[in-house]
Amino acid sequence: MSHNSVDHLVKMANQIAACIPAADAEAKVQSTATHIKKFWSPSMIKNIREYTAEGGAGLTPAAAEAVATLAK
Q1: How far apart are the first and last CA of the chain?
Q2: Which stretches of the chain are DSSP H helices?
Q3: Is the pLDDT of residue 1 over 70?
Q4: Which has fewest Cβ within 10 Å: 2, 49, 52, 59?
Q5: Residue 67 pLDDT > 70, yes or no?
């Protein structure tokens, strides 16, 4: 996976987490994860999960938590 691809996935995950409406932090994480599951391809999800497992630099806390829930 290219560095540019990872940067794009990080940017998208952060934007989703920042813009998705939610009542509280937990709801924001769950809504972000739901959005990613619904609209991202399996390969995109695999790539962001692998990146997060390697530290996930650049992901906001909400985006990183949402990605972490994708493994469950």
Answers
A1: 23
A2: 3-19, 25-39, 42-53, 61-69
A3: no
A4: 2
A5: yes
